[in-house]
Amino acid sequence: MTPRMNPIAATGATLSCLGVGMGAFGAHGLESLLEGAPEAAKRMAWWTTAGEYHLLHGVALIAIGAAAGRRVGFVAPVWCLVLGTVVFSGTLYAMALGAPRILGAVTPLGGLALMVGWAWLGLRFMKPADA
pTM score, two decimals? Predict the structure, then answer.
């Protein structure tokens, strides 16, 4: 058997790596950056939520890549998870850094993409491996 690339797991590993970096920045750099800023506690909470979802979905994609193996039909739901993570966490990170709060109206779209991705994956895993 020839080794094959696993782009789903590779994407998950990349998201996880970035998630650790963002978490480290939040823990060590963001607090001093926000010192004395209006709504600093709220902005730190946004960063924390963004980081939790970011890291969770990166690790989940690694597991999905491993579980999917050579099965087909996982590209679209995985893209929902990647897009959802980028939009959900990205808008929260941006608002924590001072971007306009109107981005908060976009954040739920990322959450919706995550929900669609998870539901789609659940349905996909209910099909036989050769379907």
Answer: 0.91
